[in-house]
Amino acid sequence: MLGLENKLTLYGFNNLTKTLSFNIYDVSYAKSEREQKDYIAYIDEQYNSERLTNILRNVTDIIGAHVLNISKQDYDPQGASVTILISEESMPVGLIDKSCNQGHADIIATRDSVVGHLDKSHLTVHTYPEYHPDNSIATFRVDIEVSTCGEISPLTALDYLIGSFDSDIITTDYRVRGFTRNEYGKKFFIDHKMTSIQDYIDKETLQKYDAIDVNVYQSNIFHTKLLIKEIELQNYLFNRDVYEIPPKERLQITNNLRREMIEIFSGTNIYDE
Q: Is residue 76 part of a domain?
């Protein structure tokens, strides 16, 4: 895993904006309508706005930023969102807008929704539980964006984010926008070496996935998709034991799960009849 070293000597402020967009999909098998509804309720409880807020707080610590404001919301019937506004450097209290809660728990507890802001950056997370009654497949998508401005980079939190969720399919986008100047006035459109998002993912994690890159190097746009290699069926059954299911049906369920994952990974309906 690469580090972000060899910092440039800059003239003025680092104006580069670095944005990491991170989507994970968790796929499960829930056969009956009751199992499907119980799965959605379980996901809503496991990944409510409070837990998501804690995850984003940890991301803020990992990238070395400071919380200015947090906003969160749990939705009816399902889903949650959190936004954090952050700053690269700690700010004097007198300069922080009075509407900002700085993440103080006693203030957040009085609110149904929470948003967090950084002085130059932000973090957001949204959840999307979903199922269709006809195919017994339930999915859970988490959409996270970490956007920073200055020297701090969201890439340092990528491994932590992957480990915070059960991830069958992962899609990540990283983009650097704007430019900064060195001490001689020369423009730099990126301030660190970058070949692939995969360079910032732990090697043991990468071994669990098939991965492909689609990168536009001249525009500092990087895209990586990962698909889990092995399906251990018990891990995908909701409130059922694999040994309760006949072998032939186990194979069919596994095939259905794999098909769902391949379509999500590919972004197209491959198996439509």
A: yes
Please spell the DSSP secondary structure of 104-168, one letter per residue.
Answer: -HHHHTT-S-EEEEBSSEEEEEEEEEEE-TTT-EEEEEEEEEEEEESS--GGGGHHHHHHTS--S
Q: How far apart are alpha carbons 196 and 193 in whole angstroms?
A: 10
Q: Does an H or E element contain 54, and which?
A: helix 49-63
Token pair for 260: 């769902």
Long-range contacts of 249-256 (CB under 8 A, 24+ apart): 253/29, 253/136, 256/29, 256/135, 256/136, 256/137
Locus of tokens 């990491």? 20
Domain CATH for 73: 3.60.90.10
Q: How many angstroms separate the CA atoms of 17 and 15, rounded?
A: 6
Higher per-residue confidence, 36 vs 272: 36
**Token duo for residue 261:** 């994952």
**Alpha helix segments (H runs only) across 156-246:** 158-163, 203-206
Number of structural domains the chain divides into = 1
Residue 264 and residue 171: Cα distance in Å, rounded? 10
Structure tokens at 263: 């379509």
**H or E segment at 69?**
strand 66-74
As annotated, the active-site residues are 121, 126, 149
What is the reported pLDDT for 4? 47
pLDDT of residue 100: 56
Q: Which helix (H) or strand (E) holds 253?
A: helix 247-266
CA dihedral 205, 160, 192, 213 (to 10 degrees): 40
